[in-house]
Design brief:
single chain, 198 residues, mainly beta, 7-stranded antiparallel sheet, 14 strands
Amino acid sequence: MHDGDDVGTASRQLTQLSNGQWQIAMESDISYYFLSDKRQETSRFAVDGEQILPIMYQRLSETSFRSDSTLLQNFDWDNMIEQGSYKGDQWNQPLKIGYLDQLTQITLVREHLLTQRPIPAIDISYRGSIRHHEFKVLGQETIKTRKGNIKTAKVQLNEKERDRQTNFWFALEHNMLPVQVQRIKEGEEQAKLIATDW
């Protein structure tokens, strides 16, 4: 949603693979006036005790007025090295236990909400650099969805260096599924994702 208008669709799926690893797949398709944006994101990861270990992250994007792009990250935990590529740039950087990708960070946030533990600061590996994310639980809030009113825990991520804020609503009675996400930049709402089915 943008300015109250329905501008696209998105889906998200978590699957356990035959080798015991997990995969998150997310797709979005947005069209607003002259702007169109299609994205496919995939993250494959392993779970070692309470530790999430990303194995591979890939994002394919097609955006109007921009060239199509592919972001690829491979995490080699045996040698503690990440290899990545984006728009012709390539990098190798050392890994540290705790580094996550764009998709697995929400899995860790959900895990801490489910077990009622404080959400730790999370370091995200992104395009050859590390972003430090700190989440804050703002409290409980009831939101309206197509399935009725849903009780949620509202969590906020502030990225001060980018003047950007993301709010997440996790359903208290539905395994802490994220049922609403809102992105705010420079004080204005850019978009809001609202779950319609799960």
